Amino acid sequence: MNPYQTAKDIASLSLYYIDGLASVREAINLMKENQVDYLFIKKRNEQDANGIIVISDIIRGVIVKDLKPEEVSVYEIMTKPALSISSNLNSKYVSRLLLNSKINVAPVEENGNYIGVIHLRDIVYSY
To answer: Which of 51, 95, 44 is nearest to 77 (CA)?
Structure first.
């Protein structure tokens, strides 16, 4: 990994969103369709925070509890607020931040907007 790369340099620019009121079934279908293991939930207003739903949320909040994904809303199992990474953070600190936070994926934020997403695999692939 180039020590002068930033989070923005290694981030994937593909961002996928779902409404918090959508069902987990809809989230699963959107994840499958786009071959991703996360979806972001947009803020409802300026004072709100963005959320994220990842595969482990679905496993923990629906599958393990033997619930039907059609009957559970995304907002019931999502993580909010979503931890975001500053776009200009040196890439060598991105992996530490993710590991210390015990997460695999996080959005990259610039000027208050998500511009990309970094997954632990992106860090490995950037080597």
So the answer is: 51
